[in-house]
């Protein structure tokens, strides 16, 4: 194993016990990382927080998507309620929740591996794009 692939192994960065191996080093972070403002007690994962299941509830995510789309922001491939768009809505909402609505930098940052894995488990798909620095809709 190279040092980069070893660093992507959760045993080297996970402190919550729920992280999984991600495709890239950038996506390999734990909810205990200092880049997130939400702090949990030691050994407790963010996905165990009482608000987590509410935030990723299908009805909440559908309302979030429709609100974003109705405001004129269409940074999804379609305006369908499907698992891909529900994941997008979950990631957007979870980022705001984890970072208390504040961006530390002007660039996007990946969510913790444990959080992404929980969302993917609830809203599965055959393949995933992984973390993108910029929305693909805005890259064209």
Overall morphology: globular
Strand content: under 5%
Helices and strands, in order, run as HHHHHH
Distance between the amino and carboxyl termini: 36 Å
Contiguous low-pLDDT stretches (5 residues minimum) are 136-140
Q: Mean of residue pLDDT?
A: 84
Biggest pleated sheet:
none
Radius of gyration equals 15 Å
Please count the helical segments.
6
Structure description:
This protein is mainly α. The protein has 6 helices and no strands. It has helices at residues 3-7, 50-55, 58-70, 83-98, 113-122, 136-139. Helix 3 (58-70) packs across helix 4 (83-98) and helix 4 runs antiparallel to helix 5. The termini are far apart. Mean pLDDT is 84; it is low at 136-140.
Could you give a quick summary of the protein structure above?
This protein is mostly helical and 140 residues long. The chain has helices spanning 3-7, 50-55, 58-70, 83-98, 113-122, 136-139.
Features:
140 residues, mainly alpha, 6 helices, globular
Topology:
Elements: H1 3-7, H2 50-55, H3 58-70, H4 83-98, H5 113-122, H6 136-139
